[in-house]
Specification:
The complex is a heterodimer of chains A (117) and B (111).
Chain A: E1 4-7, E2 10-13, E3 19-25, E4 32-38, E5 45-51, E6 57-58, E7 67-73, E8 76-81, E9 90-97, E10 106-108, E11 112-116
Parallel strand pairs in A: 2-11
Antiparallel strand pairs in A: 1-3, 3-8, 4-5, 4-9, 5-6, 7-8, 9-10, 9-11
Chain B: E1 9-13, E2 18-23, E3 31-38, E4 45-50, E5 55-56, E6 61-64, E7 70-75, E8 84-92, E9 105-110
Parallel strand pairs in B: 1-9
Antiparallel strand pairs in B: 2-7, 3-4, 3-8, 5-6, 6-7, 8-9
Classes of the chains: A mainly beta (117), B mainly beta (111).
Chain lengths: 117, 111
């Protein structure tokens, strides 16, 4: 149980275009989803937290107009990288939790490798 | 969220136990300790979590000190496939659900 599906696994896009990444909880209702970014040889950096039906909360330094997050249902959250540039190339990972309670684990997607050329 | 500190890297012989330490000296009473691992270019995989008591599952054991300021993840019989970056995270309280990842420990299991 607790499977999170993330698509696409890798994408190459041209500079200036937008890319949408989907994160789905397959067998549970994800009240909260998180989006992370990871650069090579670095740890995961939390970008934003999204709660179903409400606006995402972005971490300091993350541009909300550039990284659009939508969490319209309890099983789907999307991250759209708008007007992508080469410096946005990174590994993007989502995770989802069933509840805001600490004793619930949360599951990660398999990640999306974005390359902007 | 409490900050955690882990050694940058560790080696372990295949078949031997791997003991990965984590310090979380500022942990709050309602924060849990979680361990995840990440194999190259994949999403982190949940391993185990605990609050106060030691925990064991099919993957690993988690030993938490009585003062909860540190913990140790034990992989009882490490295999080459256990080579990964292991992250120790504390989570809970008012920021329940939000996790901050440190740099983790790169475990290399050698034949």
């Amino acid at each position: 149980g607790a499977v999170v599906s993330q698509h696409p696994s890798r994408v190459i896009c041209k500079s200036g275009t937008s890319v949408k990444i989907e994160c789905r909880s397959l067998d549970f209702q994800a009240t909260t989803m998180f989006w992370y970014r990871q650069f090579p040889k670095q740890s995961l950096m939390l970008m934003a937290t999204s709660n179903e039906g409400s606006k995402a909360t972005y971490e300091q330094g993350v541009e909300k107009d550039k990284f659009l997050i939508n969490h319209a249902s309890l099983t789907l959250s999307t991250l759209t990288v708008t007007s992508a540039h080469p410096e946005d190339s990174s590994f993007y990972i989502c995770s989802a939790t069933r509840s805001g309670l600490a004793n619930y684990g949360y599951t990660f997607g398999s990640g999306t490798r974005l390359t902007v050329v | 969220d409490a900050k955690t500190t882990q050694p940058t890297s560790m080696d372990c012989a295949e078949g031997r136990a791997a003991n990965l330490p984590c310090n979380h000296s500022t942990i709050s009473g309602n924060e849990y300790v979680y361990w995840y691992r990440q194999i190259h270019s994949q999403g982190p995989q949940y391993i185990i979590h605990g609050l106060k008591n030691n925990e064991t599952n099919e993957m690993a054991s988690l030993i938490i000190t009585e003062d909860r300021k540190s913990s140790t993840l034990i992989l009882p019989h490490a295999t080459l496939r256990d080579t990964a970056v292991y992250y120790c995270i504390v989570r809970g309280g008012t920021n329940a659900g939000k996790s901050t990842f440190g740099d983790g420990t790169t475990l290399t299991v050698k034949p």
